[in-house]
Amino acid sequence: MVVRSFLIWLAIIFAEIIHGVMRAVLLVPWLGEFRSNQIGVFTGSIIIFVIAWLSVRWIGANRAIDLLSIGAIWVTLTLAFELLFGRYVIGLDWERITADYDLRPRRTDATGTAMAWDYPVGGEQTEVIESLTDCSLP
Question: Distance (Å, rounded) from C-alpha 61 to C-alpha 21?
């Protein structure tokens, strides 16, 4: 389960890199940085949700706690990737990197990343709701 969820996370990161490049090339020149970021969070969230939805059964997580744990691991890995990639590959300073996660000026990156925590659950929504609401006594 751990290896499979990591492989899916790699697929998510690859899809998000392609998504980010496409956003920068197609939307930023046309709509500007702020508006393209807003659209990018929405479309990126859809991409991540679809990947999670298509892969959740293959991962093999059957319990709500497993699904939520995978989501938490994905968020942690994604934050680490974004921080380290931004700093050491792109060469951004820490102030610029952390500005994307500052909610005061209405930045949306943190919102999209936080939403990803719940995506594995969305792929198995029916089973999770049933497991969380099962109040039967032994």
Answer: 32
Cα separations (Å) of 12 from 18, 54, 59, 91, 120? 10, 12, 14, 23, 12
In angstroms, the CA 92 to CA 43 distance is 24
Over the stretch 2-47, which tens digit does the pLDDT of each residue have? 999 999 999 999 999 999 999 999 999 999 988 998 899 999 999 9
- What is the pTM for the complete model shown? 0.73
First to last CA, the chain: 28
- Cα separation, 99 vs 77, whole angstroms: 19
The closest alpha carbon to 2, from 71, 77, 59, belongs to 59
64-84 vs 2-22: helix axis angle to the nearest 10? 50
Instruction: Please give the Cα distance from 61 to 67 (Å, whole number).
Output: 6
Question: What's the rounded Cα separation, in Å, for the pair 120 and 66?
Answer: 9
Question: Which tokens go with 25?
Answer: 């090339």
Rounded to whole angstroms, how far apart are CA atoms 128 and 67?
Answer: 9
Which tokens sit at 113? 């990343």
